[in-house]
Amino acid sequence: MPVPKSIKLKKSLPDSPGVYLMKNKEGEVIYVGKATSLKHRVSSYFEKAHEARIELLVSEIYSIDFKTASSVLEAAIIEATLIKKIQPKFNIKEKSDKSWIYLAVTKDKFPKLLLIRGLELKTNYKETDFLDIFGPFSSRKILESILHIIRKIFSWSNCEPKADKPCFYYQLGYCPGICVNTITSSKYGKTINSIRLLFAGKKPTLLKKLKKEMVELSKHEKFETAAAVRNKISKLEHIQDVALLETEKFPDFYKTKVKFRRIEGYDISNISGTSSAGSMAVFENLEPAKKEYRKFKIRSLNQINDVAMISEILTRRFHNTWPYPDLILVDGGLGQINVAKKILQTLNLKIPVVGIAKGKNRKNNRLVFGFQDKKLIISVSSIKKTLICLRDEAHRFAISYHRSLRNLKV
Predict the structure, then answer these.
(1) In whole angstroms, what is the distance from residue 51 CA to residue 32 CA?
(2) H-only helix segments in 127-253
(3) Mean pLDDT of the region 197-222
(4) Are residues 188 and 315 in the same domain?
(5) pLDDT computed for residue 248 by the predictor
(6) How many CB atoms are closer than 10 A to CB 295?
(7) 375 near 258, Cβ under 8 Å?
(8) Domain contains 41
(9) Range 132-144 average pLDDT
(10) What sign has the CA pseudo-torsion 352, 330, 283, 231?
(11) Max CA-CA distance within the chain?
């Protein structure tokens, strides 16, 4: 159902991302929302009966204005900026101030990006404590998704300088090297300023600045650095914000990639053939969820047999009530994949399985797929670096438990 003719629209709503502003008869903005498709989202308010709060909002709508955006990410940032500036009554009623999430940029030598709830911000801090405060955002999930997307363009980190070893995000390419002292505070400050411009809704200004920088670098024949800046420009102009689509209630055809909320990685440690142990490492939203890690003491075998041990671990794992994964990763090739698939078939579970094969020289990291779905293969391939990190985490966790079991026998 289209927007009723009684509601004033300056022009027809486009089928593209943006922000809509609902106004009452006095011209006051009473609600601001973001949309993957302005046309579909705004029309949804008039298609069927809603809860009382939405019905009351709809009854007060006199006109609707909108601002288009180049991506859902940009729309989410514009939405937060407008809510902060206008304070529309239905947005404020929707959530108490303590529930809103803000992004605060610290004044550290290497500034950190902190997610802080409204109540905590009001109670424990002053605005002058930070370089910038952006928001409010309606949920932590949305803000985390935005930061994850931005991190692929401008690598940032909240780790401490001069750590003993590189942090997890450095291995993924998301930390620029604060932990291992490979970036200066002034250079890192430029990255943070770029992120601040994005959250201030000044993407055109940022793009102009980056293009000027690229030209200057090229003039001085710093072609490698110029190419890196060019890549940032390209990524900014073609933001892939699939993660943010999950927050919008639209049909599947808006989603171009498979979303992996939970991935489980399994490994075996059986050095010398005694005290064999297994591990389950878990990534949620492509990041370690260490509270979800599990360890297994092998019970059924006294000899080295990785395939049989994976079978035991998976059988025991799925007899527990832990949340099911969207993807299972095993360290190995078709042998390990097939045994995992057999366990899943026995339990009537349809969970895709992928392996990482090292090859004869033990130096390869080749993905081996236990499925043929092309869309799924593309989605899994796009997170290969993350899967390698998950494999390494499972391996580290298995070895650590194996050593503790051996020490108990000494």
Answers:
(1) 18
(2) 140-151, 168-172, 185-199, 203-219, 223-237, 242-245
(3) 92
(4) no
(5) 46
(6) 18
(7) yes
(8) no
(9) 87
(10) negative
(11) 82
Query: Pairing between strand 277-284 and 366-369?
Result: unpaired
DSSP state of 407: H
Residues 394 and 281 in one domain: yes
Residue 207's domain comprises 202-238
Considering the chain, what percentage of its residues have pLDDT values greater than 70?
Answer: 87
Closest CA to 386 of 341, 329, 321: 329
Residue the block writes with tokens 């605060």: 104
Q: Do 328 and 295 share a domain, yes or no?
A: yes
> What are the angstrom distances between the C-alpha of 349 and each of 188, 315, 325, 369, 372?
46, 12, 11, 17, 17
Cis omega (within 30 of 0) for bond into 325 = no
- Residues 116, 130: contact at Cβ < 8 Å? no
Q: Can you spell out the DSSP letters for 69-105?
A: -SSHHHHHHHHHHHHHHH--HHHHHHS-GGG-EEEEE
The backbone region for 285, taken as left when phi is positive above 0, alpha when psi lies in -120 to 50, beta otherwise, is left
Map residue 128 onto helix, strand or coil.
Answer: helix
| 342 and 399 within one domain | yes
Residue 34 host element (H or E): strand 29-35
Total structural domains in the chain? 3
Same domain? 192 vs 223: no
Q: Is the pLDDT of residue 255 over 50?
A: no
CA distance 341 to 343: 5
Token look-up 């930390």 returns 175
